[in-house]
Design brief:
Elements (H helix, E strand, L loop, with lengths): L5 E3 L6 H10 L4 E3 L9 H10 L5 E6 L4 H9 L5 H6 L5 H15 L5 E4 L3
Parallel strand pairs: 1-2, 2-3, 3-4
Helix pairs in contact: 1-2
Length: 117
C-alpha cells in the first residue's frame, strides 16, 4: 500500500493556487477547516473542488472564527458564552457546522474530524 498525496490548507497563503497545483501533481485529498485562512479556506476551495470531483475532502468541526460565532449565535446554536470561547462541540453546533461546511465546500465532505475534542 502506498500513501495518498494530500493538500493541507492550514496556513496556506493561496489556497486555490495550491489546490490546482496539488491536484495536478496527483493529490487525492485536501484537508481544510472552517476556521482556516480567517474563515475563508472552504469557500476558496469550492471552485477548484467543483472541477475535481474525484478529489476527496476532509474538514473539521469545533473551532470557529468570530464571524462564524456571530452567525451561529444568530441561528441559535451557540450561547454567548460558547461563542466567546472560540470552540464548541455540542450536538447542535456540530450539526449546524457540518451543514455549513458542506455549503462552503460546495459538496459534502468525505470525512469530518472533531477538532481538538
Amino acid at each position: 500500500m502506498s500513501p495518498d498525496l494530500a493538500l493541507g490548507t492550514y496556513r496556506c497563503r493561496d489556497i486555490p493556487q495550491a489546490a490546482v497545483h496539488a491536484f495536478a501533481c496527483g493529490a487525492a485529498w485536501v484537508d481544510t477547516a472552517p476556521n482556516y485562512h480567517h474563515g475563508r479556506a472552504q469557500t476558496q476551495l469550492q471552485t477548484v473542488l467543483a472541477g475535481n470531483r474525484d478529489v476527496r475532502v476532509s474538514t473539521k468541526v469545533g473551532f470557529f472564527t468570530p464571524d462564524t460565532a456571530t452567525a451561529a449565535g444568530e441561528a441559535g446554536v451557540l450561547t454567548p458564552a460558547e461563542a466567546a470561547s472560540g470552540h464548541c462541540l455540542t450536538h447542535r453546533y456540530v450539526a449546524w457546522q457540518s451543514r455549513r461546511n458542506a455549503t462552503e465546500l460546495g459538496r459534502a465532505p468525505d470525512l469530518v474530524f472533531v477538532h481538538n475534542p
